[in-house]
Amino acid sequence: MDKLTDRQREVLRFIADHQEKRGVPPTLEEIRDHFHWRAIGTVQDHLRGLARKGYLKRGRGARRLEVLRDPESVFPDDDGTWTPSYQERRRASGRVSLIPVVGEVAAGSPILAVENVEEEWFLDRKLLRGDDNFLLRVKGESMTGAHIRDGDYLLIRPQAVAENGEIVVALAGDEVTTKRFYRHRDRIELRPENPAFDTIVYRRGDEEVEIIGKVVGVLRKYR
């Protein structure tokens, strides 16, 4: 594997540190601003170099950067030894998990689900409820009464059933929405938590409603 330049090491360190401290990689603009560069093209040049040398993987999206080599194998201590990063130690101990953000949920009128993974976050396992948890980003204001806002991230535990009154992510046809779930003898109701929105009612003979999972947590980024 090709040797890194000093500047490439600094860029890789910044990306790794940002991921560790904030849970997401930096955007191109954040990298540019951190190093006081004028052009995004300078960032692109360094990222291409890191990818070409096998230290970084790039994907689609503003934050689709993945450090391929562990930070301790790239950044030696002053005495020439390597100390595992805090995040690597937590991963090795099983205290954090890498959780995918798999798309958006319409908290309002249902929208077509986005199936591709947009990014991945490290979350403490204490926040999780079993395995295979994932995050879905909210779009809309229909669940504000449950303290779920536009732009929030819902932590979802996959399950096919729910109790009345639980907040679920449900699939109706090709559309996904998050609402409070109520099953009656002759119908299923998906109720919003905002009086400006109507309850969605599915009766026998209507399209099938499938529960994808239960909302077990809400994460919010403050701008």
Characterization of this structure:
With about 220 residues, the protein is α+β, with helices and mostly antiparallel strands. The chain folds into two domains: about 5-90, Arc Repressor Mutant, subunit A (Orthogonal Bundle); about 95-220, Umud Fragment, subunit A. The protein is about 20% helix and about 30% strand. The protein has helices at about 5-20, 30-35, 40-50, 85-90; strands at about 55-60, 65, 95-105, 110, 120-125, 135-140, 155-160, 165-170, 175-185, 185-190, 200-205, 210-220. Strands 3, 4, 5, 6, 7, 8, 9, 10, 11 and 12 form a ten-stranded mixed β-sheet that branches. It has a two-stranded antiparallel sheet with strand order 1-2. A hairpin with a 2-residue loop joins strand 8 and strand 9. Helix 1 (about 5-20) crosses helix 3 (about 40-50) and helix 2 (about 30-35) packs across helix 3. The longest helix is centred in the first third of the chain and has 17 residues, at about 5-20. Mean pLDDT is about 80; it is low at about 75-85 and about 110-115.
